[in-house]
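Holo model, inosinic acid. Inputs:
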Amino acid sequence: MSKILDDVSRTFSEFLLIPQLTKQEHIPRHVSLRSPVAKFKEDSQPRLSLNIPIVSAAMQAIACPRLAIALAMHGGISTIHCSQSPQSQAEMIRTTKKYKAGFVKSSANISYSGNLGEVRRIVAQTGRKTVAVTADGSSNGLLQGLIFAGDIWPGEPDGKPVSELMVSMDKIKTATVGISLDKAIILLRACNQKCIPIVYENGHLDSLVFRRDAFSLNEFPLQMLDGEGSLMVSAAINTHDYIERVPCLLHEKVDFIFFDSSDGYSEFQKRGFDWIRKQYGPDIIIGGGNVVSAEGFNYLVRECDADFVKVGIGGGSICITREQKGIGRGQASALIDVVNARNKYLSETGIYIPICSDGGLANDTQIIIALAMGADFVMMGRYFASLEESASIKYNIRGKTYKAYWGEGSSRAKHWQRYSDSLQEKNITQFEEGVDAYVPYYGWLHEVLPITIAKLKSTMVSCGAITLQTFSKEAVMTTISQQTFIEGGTSNVLLKDEP
Ligand code: IMP
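Output:
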């Protein structure tokens, strides 16, 4: 006879945290949200930690270098989806890593033989006020001078040559490629220019460091930087083409990879782990998942050597896996079971395995509950889909702005598979596990994420914790009744504005 578990499958919205003593030193400013990503020995430092416990989902509707850059600047990490060729996935990693905060590729360029009319057109098209003059008019050509649009007198004729408009190189202080941002900014201050061109030894232009960016960089103290000063980014892999895909990703120095699967409790995943470990050894950070039980966790950790484990089946906002296949588990129950298995493993071996709670987080409160329950970090799709920086486009529907958001298991997402015959497995296309939808547009990441972080810190303080580790260790929670849930929102009042 089949086995029926005693516990009911629960979701995050069924729990509330009970406040604990807030001591004087418990203030949001003192809260650290650092959280490990890869397994580590209890008495040593984690190999990789996030500065905020948030990663974006590996989905076509979301992942792109623009989001990856924005999230890494704020202390999280984006994951780049594998629903594309290994080459284009690697290209996204490269673009993200190439972005050097503060080092701006010149997008307004003109050749030395140009004139003011062309400068005016370039300024209008690009919105830039600094135009680089290079020998061939390209962004990486031999630098010959700079034109500052704000310094051009009105009424100058369009035919005026560039040579008479530009500030020539003998009057411009430059720095050589390889200089750190800190040093470039010190130089910029010393020479008091509007920007400092970063050039190769042969005089070709690499980038520009602007005064205004030097100021704004102070706003990103939590940036996730690798050993070479590039932003960190992660990539999803699958159990079909890792032999081709993993080398491409590692070539671009991806910071960690993980198997992206709705059901990771499988020998296919073990085969993938074994191959990668054999080829590249234990240093590569590889996550496994998704699982929803202690058995799944133990398999991925004890048999497959996973560095972290991703939890969640069927909870995603665009997910219909439970409906279509009858598999899954309430995200809170799944997480509790896996966290208990993790803690047991820790007490047996002294090795801590980080856990990622993936999908189904409908609001900021649920992020907080997931972390209180022992998730080390959360992965979100809908949250990021609704932001300006996500990969999908905006729509105006009846006066309101939305962004497209579709599941990786939807037929829309599966179109990419046309590129590879080897992935045209019959069962992949017979039914869908995700839907094609819209989400309300919420704005830019830098407007939305700080609010989430502020709420998290405020709750931690109420629960007497200033680190995520103490937060989950000391958290006291209660399950809530239907009526408590209803009263959690506003009650018996007529709202003036929609929340
Ligand atoms: P969300 O944050 O609730 O939108 O969930 C995002 C998560 O849903 C992803 O990180 C995936 O684990 C999962 N997911 C993505 N696409 C699908 C799908 O088509 N079906 C089921 N789950 C999906």
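The radius of gyration is 26 Å. The pocket of inosinic acid is lined by residues 57, 59, 262, 312, 316-319, 321, 358-361, 379-382, 407-410, 433-434 (CB under 6 Å).
Archived with the compound record.
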